[in-house]
Design goal:
The complex is a heterodimer of chains A (about 200) and B (about 120).
Chain A: E1 20-27, H1 34-41, E2 47-52, H2 56-65, E3 73-82, E4 87-94, H3 101-108, E5 113-118, H4 127-135, E6 140-145, H5 155-162, E7 170-173, H6 178-196
Chain B: H1 15-20, E1 37-40, H2 53-61, E2 67-68, H3 69-76, H4 80-92, E3 96-99, H5 106-124
Antiparallel strand pairs in B: 1-2, 1-3
Helix pairs in contact in B: 3-4
The chains are: A alpha/beta (about 200), B mainly alpha (about 120).
The complex binds guanosine-5'-diphosphate and magnesium ion.
Magnesium ion binds near residues 34, 35 and 77 of chain A.
Chain lengths: ~200, ~120
């Protein structure tokens, strides 16, 4: 027997006149601070879910021959921000691996844009994820998560290293801090506005 | 985690997803995206009996308001693909209603971005 789940009221999307959902991706390599960032500004405790690597339908076919075969799963985590009576914003965090194609397609489709978290000490680790974001045609801003609290030393060098367009915003943020994370998000949204004009 | 504790923990086995989805295929993305909002139809009095325990639990979860498909997967800890298949079946059966995300279009985008910006500023000052 399965008991009924019980979520408190806050777990649900606030009922607005015609509430609709939009999403922004928070991407970056492993341990760059995605989960921390989402946790800092989400109004719900961050959730995560797994996408089986093979689509469910294909997995069903696999079943016939390969009992007990293990499927790799990958976690994406996400949070929510109620923007207004009309709009609820979801933030989806995901690692940059190219091989999680299905998950990337699900997440990128219809996304307003992406915030790319980078660690200035590990810039090369961000190449793959930036390639992916560009491949999916998403507009993005760079948020430098400054782990040691030191300011970004050389933005020009970082821009060169990441091969950024001149108008791609670069901000520093502390992913543990709500205000700082929100400012990074606001920078992205302003950039998306510029791109939409 | 509440309520779903009694569901079997996720295992690498594929048998279970197959059984609980009754072998159905994935619904298409337009129908159920990660951010499609879902809620139970309000005026359905008694719980239908032909639903599986997982379907009944999902219906229960959705009965108190709207949740996105992603949140439903997160709360139940079922794989996303499985959740989508079950939600699609429940929607087809008339138990759930879905509110898909806005269609992306230049004008809608500009309005929404403006609204998101204002919302973020109001929230975080
Ligand atoms: N000092 C410091 N630590 C951070 C910051 N952001 C994240 N961390 C830590 O870095 C680790 C990885 O962060 P996490 O959010 O899990 O990274 P993810 O893999 O991208 O989701 C965690 O132990 C965090 O607490 C930051 O801005 N400053
Ligand atoms: Mg993480």
């Amino acid at each position: 027997m399965v008991s009924g789940p019980s979520l408190d009221e806050q777990a649900y999307v606030r009922e607005g006149a015609s509430q609709t959902a939009v999403k922004i991706l928070v991407v970056g390599h492993f341990a760059v601070g995605k989960t921390t960032f989402i946790g800092a500004i989400s109004e719900i405790p961050p959730l995560s879910t797994e996408e089986t690597m093979t689509r469910a339908a294909e997995a069903v076919d696999d079943l016939k021959g390969v009992q007990g075969k293990t499927t790799t799963t990958v976690a994406m985590d996400f949070g929510r921000l109620t923007i207004s009576d009309r709009v609820v914003l979801y933030l989806f965090g995901t690692p940059g691996q190219q091989r999680f194609v299905q998950m990337w397609e699900d997440m990128a489709r219809g996304a307003l844009g992406a915030l790319v978290l980078v660690d200035p000490e590990r810039l090369a680790d961000s190449f793959a994820v930036i390639d992916l974001i560009e491949q999916y045609g998403l507009d993005y801003a760079i948020a430098v998560n400054h782990f040691d609290g030191s300011p970004l030393r050389d933005e020009t060098a970082l821009r060169d290293a990441l091969d950024l367009l001149d108008d791609t915003p670069v901000v520093t943020c502390d992913a543990r801090d709500e205000q700082s994370s929100a400012e990074a998000l606001i920078t992205l949204v302003r950039h998306l506005q510029d791109r939409a004009h | 985690m509440t309520g779903f504790d009694e569901l079997e923990p996720q295992t690498p086995e594929l048998v279970r997803p197959y059984v609980i989805t009754k072998g159905r295929g994935l619904p298409d993305e337009e129908q159920l995206s990660l951010i499609t909002l879902v809620t139970a139809v309000a005026d359905r009095q008694q719980r239908p009996t032909r639903l599986s325990p997982e379907e009944q639990s999902l219906l229960e979860l959705c009965s108190a308001g709207y949740l996105s498909v992603a949140e439903i997967a997160g709360h139940t800890q079922l794989p996303l693909g499985v959740v989508k298949i079950l939600l699609a079946a429940l929607t087809e059966g008339g138990y759930l209603i879905t509110r898909p995300p806005v269609q992306r279009a230049p004008v809608a985008d500009r309005e929404i971005l403006e609204e998101v910006l204002n919302g973020l500023r109001a929230k975080f000052g």
